Amino acid sequence: VNRPSDRALAIVVSVIVVAAIAIGVALVGSPTEARLRRLDQRKARDLDFIANAINIYWREHSKLPDSIEDLKLQLPYAPFAGERYEYRVLGSAKFELCARFDRPSEQAPYGTFLTHDRGRQCFPREVRKTP
Amino acid sequence: MALAEELVRFVREALARGRSRTEVADALEQAGWGRDQVHRALDAFAPIDFPVPVPRPRPSLSARQAFTYLLLFSTLYFGAYHLGSLVFQFVDWARPDPATSVTAEYVRDSIRFSVSALVVTMPLFLYMSMLTNRELAADPNQRTSPVRRWLTYLTLFIAACVLIGDVTTLVYSLLGGELTTRFVLKVVTVAVIAGTSFWYYLSALRRDEQRIQA
Fold it and tell me: Does any CB of chain A come closer than 8 Å to the CB of residue B61?
């Protein structure tokens, strides 16, 4: 029975749901934006992974690796349009990792790779000598 | 579609007493039965010359109905839950909880999932509602269908449980002096969604019952 009140309810519910979807999409941002943020997160996690690997390398060899390749990681080093994660030795137990980010990070714990600004970012790190 | 027992019984008796099919059809149409219903009631018996009307095998339609109503109500539950969840996220966005520990990333993922759920369930739910309402209009006897009644009462039960839980939480927070705008907005959201569903399906059942009595 398609009574007028049924139809009115269907219209009201549809309007509310469509509005909710529209606001939701506006808050989440465009798919392009979401992808950029996701890639940034991936880079931050990769950096974290590399830093851990360097710590382990240091514990085994008592020196820093000369290049990232020495770590023999299964990481894709140039996953995003030929970008590389940069690694530089700063001292006997100090190194630096760099990557390019598309967006500044949102609130994230301070001091992790997840906190970063926009553009090329470098993170100087000291080797953690004990696990 | 289910046929009225009464109608089938009448047709069987009339045919058993030697009345012709056209006579039976005329009598029923004069009494106000729909042409379509009369036709189907007569079709329930094979036109074979035999002292007693010979019934035709009739397919049971309750499985099909169960499919329709289960799909209708599961899209309702899934959609209603995610509409509520989406409004909760908006409330948190507008009035952030200072004690929250969830990250913006988590909020975004939650919104994304709820939006996806609504995009899928909402058109399906509206379509299933339209379909069931149209079938009811075409064949009012479906109102007595046990599958429809059971599943609708089940929905009323679930909506009632949600409302009871909602009001209990409200009273609990009221007694604890923890009433914030954010909290009240969320309670109202749940009440509106569950309340609307409850009211709509209760009135549908009421209409069914009036039809049966009439």
Answer: no
